[in-house]
User: What shape does this take?
Amino acid sequence: MSKKQNKQKQKQKQKQKQKKNFPWVFVAFGGVLIITAIFFFARQNGGGGGTPAITVDQQKIDYGYVQFGNNKTFTIKVTNAGSGVLRFNEKPYIQVVEGC
Assistant: This one.
């Protein structure tokens, strides 16, 4: 082999080493950091803290006697009287009490 061929082979080996030595560890670590940051920003309350407090303008609605098949409607105003963000973990429900 000539010196020229040896130099070419050495350059090829160096290029292969450079390709193998790509810093995948740093890329993976950066990806984990980005995902973690997104998770923490998504979980923030937005208001910077505080405590939410739910208030309802009517605790009880009494229509008296209503015959079966007749519809009655009413409006309830629900507000957040606290300083934090009010979130519902489940769908709100209304309990209908008969005979009260």
In short: The chain has a mean pLDDT of 78. The first strand starts at residue 54 and ends at 56. Residues 24-42 form the longest helix (19 residues). The chain is about 35% helix and 5% strand.
